[in-house]
Specification:
The chain is mostly helical and 46 residues long. It has one domain. It has two helices and no strands. α1 packs across α2. The longest helix is centred in the N-terminal third of the chain and has 23 residues. It is elongated, with a radius of gyration of 13 Å. The chain starts with a helix and ends with a helix.
Length: 46
């Protein structure tokens, strides 16, 4: 069950990061801010 819990947590975190990135696309923000840059780097699919 430990592996299942770790994988489940990783997918939940990724889901929330994608949701946050979608919300950020509607508001004005500084793309060079470290937290914003982290979210973009993690959720970028290229």
């Amino acid at each position: 069950m430990l592996i299942y819990d770790i994988v489940n947590l990783a997918f939940e975190v990724m889901m929330w990061l994608v949701v946050i990135r979608c919300i950020l696309s509607f508001i004005r923000h500084n793309p060079y801010h470290p937290i914003i840059r982290f979210i973009y780097d993690i959720t970028d699919m290229t």
